[in-house]
Amino acid sequence: MRCRVCRGPAIIDIRRHNANFCAEHFLKLCRDQVAKAIGEFDMISPGERVLVAVSGGKDSLALWDLLLDLGHDTDGLYLGLGIGDYSDRSHRYARDFADRRGAKLVEIDLPGDYGYDVAGGAKAARRVPCSACGLSKRHLFDRAALDGGYDVVATGHNLDDEAAVLFGNVLRWHTEYLGRQVPVLPGANGFPRKVKPLVRLGERETAAYCVVRGIDYIVEECPMALGNKHLGYKDALNAIEVTSPGSKHDFYFGFLSRASARFRVDAAADSQDLHPCPSCGAPTTAESCAFCRLVARAGGHHPVAVELSPTRPAPSVTRP
Amino acid sequence: MRCRVCRGPAIIDIRRHNANFCAEHFLKLCRDQVAKAIGEFDMISPGERVLVAVSGGKDSLALWDLLLDLGHDTDGLYLGLGIGDYSDRSHRYARDFADRRGAKLVEIDLPGDYGYDVAGGAKAARRVPCSACGLSKRHLFDRAALDGGYDVVATGHNLDDEAAVLFGNVLRWHTEYLGRQVPVLPGANGFPRKVKPLVRLGERETAAYCVVRGIDYIVEECPMALGNKHLGYKDALNAIEVTSPGSKHDFYFGFLSRASARFRVDAAADSQDLHPCPSCGAPTTAESCAFCRLVARAGGHHPVAVELSPTRPAPSVTRP
Asked: Considering only residues 208 to 247 of chain B, which have any Cβ-Cβ distance to chain A shorter than 8 Å?
């Protein structure tokens, strides 16, 4: 097995590229694919400040590492979800990476700052854990980005993630979600721009990237996610990828180029009635926003400082 | 396990309906679902003559039986594909059913009438067997319907089939196929109307229907289809259906109600340049139609009678 570029011994085969790569040229491939995604979808302009949502997993740490190496001005944001030992260990991986790279990690703790954890929030709101978690993350990433003056939030969604989400959305023909499933959501209506620079890399590649780069990350799936539908969709697509390499790529990028625009009108209709949540100011179409309703149901609270002072202090920050 | 309707002992559970049925009410359910599909999509009007494409498998024989019981004026059409013993046995099941029901079966034999079989056609045309087979079937069903003065061709595609085809089409975002994947293709441009009255029944139900009705059918999958992509798509959707009953139904019917129209323009564009094939008269966008090209490559011929006489004799018919 030889590297496609230099013919030296290869360390990884990527079937959808029908090619093998040595360590050096595999890292170059990853950087090139991320740079290509950023350029092709106008994700980040030179000089913009990027907040990377960091979970301590392979994708978000690979993303942060790649963005730093590509010269982007990035800080990380870690959100403690209160999932016991899993959260503690994830947090450690995120902090260790930030320390090693001399990068700034913003930290928010759901139980400490907001008085609830994912399990409690899910139970109170009668949502599955992944739903309560996703809602909390989206809200707090957006808010931290706007409060911190960042131009853009970057998340570690990779090609497998996006293909699986797309599969879930087409299985139910959630047309408004389909209209919104793009690698760049422009900032508007009180939302920051959100980008997914890893859409051209599969999760096997982000894992290999971390191994080659010596980045330690939490390997286990989140214990609350086990058996969720998203993982079932991944399994289904993986089975197809085995017999037809490149299927996931074609599914996702074919959607973007030939179908996505047909659903945009549904997403736009959904955002017409946005107004600021009276409680937290986040854009919402309901009386109060879904996050504030979740916090209220879970018996949580907004950070105490917010209620005491009009100039809210920045969240706690680990400086290297 | 009790019947939802009469509370008698049930013989089948249908998880996506969240219900069990006794034999009598299961048959009624099947008839009702077919009648509902026919009505909802305007498939067949009273008095129209229907040609049912009959393979000898569970779906097409169940369909023919159901259409007869619903009072439709139907003949069957059996196409011998030259797949050795598999074709011989399929043929026998189709003939036995026709005899038992006192129904008319039109018969065409690919090797005898056209001088090639599916394996040879596939090899010559460098297509996978299912592609050469599908192309031949579509052409010959259309032609037999037009020649025989039928108003509509009915095929036994069930919900599993349609969901799997849809999955294949969205995986590659074949937008022109998506625009054409409807349970009724109106007759136009030299094509007869084509309908799929089984779209509301799964393949487990059509199999159970045949068992309950005492209809013998060929149980094995076609040996040429083993390992094809379509079966892989079925496996993937089956895995999802197990954890989320109703997924296939929602996928297919959600597509029809919320997405299909968005792709219609692509299908329409594709049919703008149709003209009659100079060799056989079938509508085509190319110089000669795909079927005539397949026949030529496979070293086959059109039925001798066609070339000798302007009034082509009807294909051979088994009369009960």
From this structure: 229, 232-233, 235-237, 239-240, 243-244, 247
